[in-house]
Every structure is written in C-alpha cells, then in structure tokens.
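Example record for the data management plan.
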Amino acid sequence: MSVAEASLVITVLNESTTISAFLDSLRGQTTLPAEIVIVDGGSTDGTTEAIRTWAPPHGVTVTLIESPGAGISAGRNQAIAAARHDRILVTDAGTEVDPGWVTALLHAASSHDADVVSGFFYPVGDTLLQRAIAFTITPALAEIDPERFLPSSRSISFTREAWAAVGGYPEWLDYCEDLLFDIAMKDAGFVLLFEPAALVSWSARPTLRAFMKQYYRYARGDGKAGLWRKRHFARYVAYTAGLTLAVLSLLTPWTLVALAVCAAAYLEKFWRRVFGRRKAFGRGVVPALALVPLIVIAGDLAKMAGYPAGLRWRSRQPA
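Corresponding structural encoding:
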C-alpha cells in the first residue's frame, strides 16, 4: 500500500450513520492520499467525534475544520485552501469508495497529464425502495458519453490550478454546484478526462418524500444557475401531452393506447436500468420494476416544482 502526494477533501454535516463506513473504505485503498481534509458544517449528531477517534492508516494525516453554517461549496473551498498538495480528490461522506478509487484517479491523471479526472459511481441501498430509487435514477456506464459527461463531485480529481482558475466551487449556489464547477473548468479550457474505473458507491434517500425533496432542490439549483432550460422545458411538454391524452381517452378510447405507448417509451430507459441490475434485487426485481413509474413521476413532479422556484430566485438577483 503506497501513499501519494494528494489531498482528499470532503464536507460533512450530521453524517454519523455513514461516516464510519466511509472512513473504513478509505482504509482499504490500494493507494492512500497523504492527507485528508474534512470540513464540518456544524454537525450535532456525533460526526466530528467519530472523525476524531478514527485512526488513519500510517502515513496519512487528517485535518478536521469545524465551520458551522458552511455549505457544500464553501466547505470544499475551505478544505482545498487548507490542503497541502496540488492534486485534489473529492468525494462525499455518504459514499463508500472502491479499493482502487484513488489509484485509478491518480493513474489516469499522470498517464494523460490531465488536470481534471472524473470517476464514476454505482448505486446500492439497504432497502428495496432505496435500491429501486438509486437504480432508476443512476445511468448505466453504457449511457455515458465521455466527451459530454459532467462529473459529480462524488468522484472527481483536479489540480489546485484548475480549481483556482475558475474561482473554486460557486458558493452562491446551494445545489448543482459541482455541475457549474465542471462547466467553468471546461469553459476555461481544461479537459475533463473520464475514468470509469474510479468508482464509488452511493445510496438513495430512504423514503419517496425525502427523494422528492432532494430532486426539488436539485431542480431549484438548475433554475438558480440557469442550467438545462431545454431539458426542463421538454419535461413540461411531455407531461402536458400526457395529460391531454389522458383527458382525450375519456372521449376516444383509442387515445388510451397512444398514452400507454408514449408512457412506455418514456419509461423504457429507467426500466432497462433496473432490469440490467436485477442481480442486486434477486426476487425483488419485479416489485422494483413496478416502482419505476412511481419513482420517475415523483422525481419529475419535484423537478417541475423546483425549477421555476430557482428561476424566480434568479430573476430577483441584481444584474
């Protein structure tokens, strides 16, 4: 096991249920970062105590910065500013990193002289609902276009130079901040290299309500940042068309067939994702497939509520 001159940064806030598993997954890395910098945004559930009592592997230092009220962007920026090394690794405390995660990111960066390397992620979950949600919304590797992929900061590495060149993570944005950070680096001329072997696992929210709240916030972040206007507009068009066909089916039953065909076409991608991971469900794959329409509709409704809220916020900001 080797130690590399790289700094891993994460932010935490009330992560007591996940932080131990995350730290244990770091211990199993084939290559370790020489430094871990953690910014806590004001945890009250024992997260900081768990971090302080964790014994890092030999050669790894841990710095805990307590910054009550710091959001994700501000926390990451604080951690990076405090880090000693020029190569930065970023993930979330709610994940678990595969043993080769650090190795894959650093090898890709050095082999291609890449300023930015994006890893990938895969879904897990303790309950059938968590797995159904996570598997429905997480794209399969075959769906990814490496040239257009904008990495989540769930799995990414970049140089301090790239971070500084774009002014760091946007602290005015509470959600989707990592996408805006990615776009800024691309616009600044940095190439985002995709390394699918740099894997982390993640779990969805435990309830449908919590999932909808999360997606509302994501869409609100899109609206605040002015992202994906066409994509969100297309969603409103699709649901308007669906409601129109549903109403018309009361008068002309044949439109019910058209509605079913359109709905199946819309849901096909999501069903395919769940079925492709059917081994993770075992016998639960049938109820998971049955949950897909509910999950997709719930997520879409949350997005359609969140996006205009973000646009309203954006319209009220000074020019």
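Summary line stored alongside the record: The chain has two domains: 2-203, 208-315.
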